[in-house]
Predict the structure.
Amino acid sequence: MTNVEKKQAKKLANPIKSVGMKLFAIIFCGIIACVMSVGLLAYSKAKEIIESKVSEASFQTVNQVANNLDIIFRTYEDLSMQIMIDEDFHEQVRTVLDSKAGFNKSEAAGKLNERLRNYVTGNVSISGVMLIPLNPKLTVLNVGAAQANRSEIIKESAWFKEVIERDGKTLWIPPQPGGLAVLPAPPSIGMSRLIKDKMTNQPTYLLLMEIHLASINKRFEDVELGQGSEMAILDSKGNYIVSPDPALTGKPAKVSLPTEGDSALSGSQKAAASNGKDVLAAYTTFDTMNWKLLGTVPVKELVKDAKSIQTMTWITVVIASLIAVAIGVLVILTIAQPLVKLRNLMNEGASGNLTVRSSFKKRRDEIGELSESFNRMMAQIQLLAVQTTRSAEDVLLTAADLTEASRKTALSAKEIAGATEEIAGGAASLAVEAERGTDLTSHINMQMKKVIASNQMMVRSANEVEKASEQGTAYMGILIHKTGVTEEMTRSMVEKVDALKESTGSIVKILEVLNNLTKQTNILSLNATIEAARAGAAGKGFMVVADEIRKLADQSRQSIDIVGQITEKIRDEIDETVQVLSNAYPLFQEQIGSVKDANQIFLTVQGQMGQFAEKLELVTESIGQLDHSQGILADAMTNVSAVAEESSATSEEVASLSSVQLNISDEMVRLSEKLDAVSRELKESLSQFKMN
C-alpha cells in the first residue's frame, strides 16, 4: 500500500466522519428540531393571541376614555358658546363702544366682568379666563388667575392669529413654553375662539379659557391597559400634552404614529418605543380637536405568562435528546459497524488484494445485498485485470508506431504555418493602409459637411437680416407717421392751453366784480344795522335780517377768496404746461429727423443684404458639386478597404487553420508518448494485483 493510500484509509477511519455518526447526527438534530419547532410555534402563537386580544381591549378602552374626554372638552366649548350667544353680554359691549354713553361705560364694563365671573364660578378646573379686546375702545377682561398684562404678549403669539383666521371656530391650544394667561404658569391647556357682535357681525373680543392639565389627567389616570401601561394625550404634531412624566410635556412622543390614511385617525399597532422596547400602542383622535389619546402597554409584560410554554419546550428538548441518543446507539450497532467492516475489505481490495470476500451473506437486508454485490464486483475486477494485462502489451507495441508517424506530420505542419503567416502579414499591411485612406476620406467628408452646414446657416441668416430690414423700414414709416400726428396734437394742445389761459383771466375779472359786490353788500348790511338800532324795538327784526346779510356777505367773500386762490393756482399750472409744451416741440422736430435718417439706413442695409444672399447662393452651388465628388472618392476608398480586409481575414483564417493543424500534430505526438507511458504504467500496476 502506498503512502497516499494509507493516508486515505486513515482519513476514512475517522469516526466523526463515519456514516454512523452522520445518521446519529441526522436523527438527533431531526428530533430536536421537531420538538423545538412545535414548542416555539406554540409560544409564538400564544404570544400573538395575547397581543391581539390585549390590543383590541386596549383600543376599546382608549376609545371609551376619549369619548369621556370629548364630553368634557365639549362642556368647555358649550360654556364659551353661552358667552357668544348671551344677548345681555353683547348689549353691555355695545354700551362700552357707544361714544355717547358717558358714565354707563364704566358700569357696563363692570357688568361684563361680573357676567364673565358668573360663567366660570364653581368650575375649579378653569384656572383663568381672559377676554382680549379686538377694538381699541374695549378693555381687557380677566377672571380667576388670568393676568391682564399678558394680553400684549398673547397678541404676538402664532395661535392668536390662527384663532382670528378661524372666524369663531374653537381652537384648542397645547401647553406653551411661556404660559398663557396665568403666571406662574402651571401645566395647562387653552381653549380660544372669536366673539362677534350678533347685530354687526364684527369681532369684539377673543376669548381665552385656561384649563388645568391636572383636571384632565384625573379623568384617565386610574385607567390601566395592563402592567406598566401609560396613557397620554398628543397634539397634532405628535408632541406630549398630557403624559405620566410632566417633564415630557411638549416633547415628541416615544411612539411614532401614522400620519396618512385612515390609520392616522385611530387604530392599534405594535411599535418600537424610543427607549428600544416593543409596546402595543392604541390611539384615537378626539372629535373636538385634532389631538390624540395614546395608550401603550409593554409587550414584555403581556407575554410574561407565555414564558411557561417556552420553559416546557426546553424540558421536552432535553428528554427528546436522551431518546435521540438511544436511537443513535442502536443505529450504530446495526448499521454503522457492518459498514465499517465492508469499508475495510474495500480498502484491502484497493491495495491490490483482489481475492478478499465479504462474510455478511446471511443477512437479508440491504447490508447483506451489499455484501453479495461486493463479492461479485471483486470477481469481475479480478477477471478484468487479467484481460487488461494482455491488452496493455498490445497497446505498447502500437504506441511506438503512432509516435513516429505523429512526429513526421508535425514537421510538415510547421512549414505550412510559416508560409501562411508571411501571407497574412502582407494582407494585414495592405488592410492597414486602406483603413488609413478611408479614415482620411471620412475626415475630409466631415469637414465638407461642416462647410455646407455653415454656408446654409449664412444664407438663412442673410435672408433673416433682409426680412428684418424690410420690417424695420415698415416700422420706421409707421413711426414717422405717428411722430407727425404727435407733433400736430402738441401744437393743438398749446393752442387750447392758451385759450384756457385767456378764460382764466376772464374768471379773475368776474371774481373782482363779485368781490366788489360783496364789499358793497357788507357796507349795506352795516348801514341797515345802524338804522335798525336807531329804530329801537321796531327795528329788531330788521336788525336780525341785516345781521344774516352781513354773515352771508362774509361767507361769499371767503368763498370768492378761495376761488381766487384756486384760479391763480390754475393760471400758474397753465403757464408751466405752456412752458413744457414749448420745450417739447423742438424735441419732436429732432425726433422726426432722426427717424427719417434711421429709415434711410434700413433701406441701405436691405439692398446690401440682397447682394450678399445672391453671392452665398453661388458659393453653395460650388460646395454642393465638391461634396458630390468627395462622396464618389469615399465610396472608392471604402471598396478598397473592404477588399483589403477580406484578403487579410482570409489569410488569417488560413494561418489559424495551419496553427490548428500544427497544434493537432503536436498533440498527436504528445498523446502517442503519453499512450506509451500509460501502457508501461498499466503493465506495472497490474503486476501488483494478487489474482491467484
